Amino acid sequence: MQSVLSEGEPRPQAPAIDPTMEKRVVRKLDRNIMPLVMILYLLAFLDRSNIGNARIAGMTEDLNLDSDAYDWLLTIFYISYIVFEFQAMMWKLIPPHMWATFCVLGWGLVSSVQAGIHTWKAAMALRFFMGVTEAGYGPGIPYLLSFFYLRKELGYRCGLFLSAAPLANTFAGALAYGITSGNPGLAKWRVLFLVEGLPTIAMAGVTWFWLPDSPVKASFLNEEEKEVAVRRGVRQVGHEGARIGGVKWEDVRAALLDAKCWFTALMYFSCNVSFSSLPVFLPTILKEMGFSSINAQGLTAPPFFLSFLLTILTTWIADRTQQRGIMVMALGIIGGVGYIMLAVSDSVGVRYAGVFLAAAGIFPAIANILPWVLNNQGNDTRRGVGIVILNLVGQCGPLLGTRLYPSGEGPFYVKGQSICAAFMFFTTFLALGLRTLLWWENKKLDRLYGTLEEQKRQREAGGAQHGVVGKEEAAASEAGEENYGPLFRYVL
């Protein structure tokens, strides 16, 4: 039962934390959690997108696949990925180390078994199950990270996690070339699937023993550091209760009716049209520019490496400035311009420069959209539902994106490039709309509670917070900085 504060009574403050100790805890979280989730996402992205490398390594000829059959192999993955998006909530219902291990082992087995297929139907079935298992991992990791990091810390960590995707694409071509350049006893594309799938299976064991369910259960923290982690949690959400094990259905309904969730979902859809198509079609696009298969594989690396660097840099800047919307708008414009260059120019140099801009816009934009969802929901259940909505809508983008580059429209693929450009600009428009809505919502909160500066001055003076009394005051007093209450403001 909540206690009701009298109107003049000072509000309880979150437990004080030694800043030096807090930095040490965050560094330990970074060193032990981030590399693991990044490596797993890197493997996931390799295992889902290496079909593009397998295509030019002889898979289509051996399985007698035409362009339409190949496109369906890409599409079926995202159909199952969408249908099973609800699994993002499993991170709250099942101990994370168990759930993650199940997902990693699942897609690792599926990826490896692809080496033994002989028919298109078998390939379709395995791509479907790969989508099921990967849907349980990647979409939920930003949600999991919100259990360990504060709002102001979360965007950069999401950026680090998501940077594994362009990093995977950076060396995917070189790795594929190294794997397929010899004369193995198996078909080269079969060796590719096998060599890239087996390490994932091995990582399932590492995940079971190393991924913590919560900061309190992290074996790499000592007792003093775990106490700091508990205090950080209280400062986040206002109580010391477990954050794993259940959902609040009234918050599920509230999130479903929240326009902010749908704005970000549409942004994610728009970016995913391009995000899904670029890695799997870029080797083919470069090959049809006139490069050999080997050179086409190698030339995919520089644009993706630039994207990797920008994914980390832009999320760090957005965290520092708390201006994520402006960052998404700028990246949407950059990506759109890149696709326009690919659509209208017949110069190889200009088109290759367009690839750089497209990659520099797509991946960093997505890396900033995902934490924006978490930044702007005020409790764990609503954050989880926001992630589910984001992915249910957003992962429909690949259903379109994976079918934009039919072989008959090469080498310029004007229609596909133009559609991707339009969606990147649409992302910019949506980001502007959401930022305007969040600015308006913050103004309402300022009128209700007083600005953050006014509240700070009142706390320093020992006075009561400005705004509500009675039950509202009591609820506000128990809300952490990241839950709805006087100190909560939306990240623009």
UniProtKB/TrEMBL annotation:
Q: Which Gene3D superfamilies match?
A: MFS general substrate transporter like domains
For this UniProt entry, the molecular function terms from Gene Ontology, in alphabetical order, are: transmembrane transporter activity
UniProt entry tagged with the keyword Oxidoreductase: no
> Carries keyword Membrane?
yes
Protein name (database record): MFS general substrate transporter
Q: Where does the UniProt annotation locate this protein?
A: Membrane
Q: Which residues cross the membrane?
A: 33-49, 69-86, 98-120, 126-148, 160-179, 191-211, 261-281, 301-318, 325-344, 350-373, 385-404, 416-438
What is the membrane topology listed in the Swiss-Prot or TrEMBL record? Multi-pass membrane protein
Species name for this entry? Aulographum hederae CBS 113979
Give the main localization category. Answer: membrane
Which keywords accompany this UniProt record? Membrane, Transmembrane, Transmembrane helix, Transport
Q: Name one GO cellular component term.
A: membrane
**Pfam families for this protein:** MFS_1
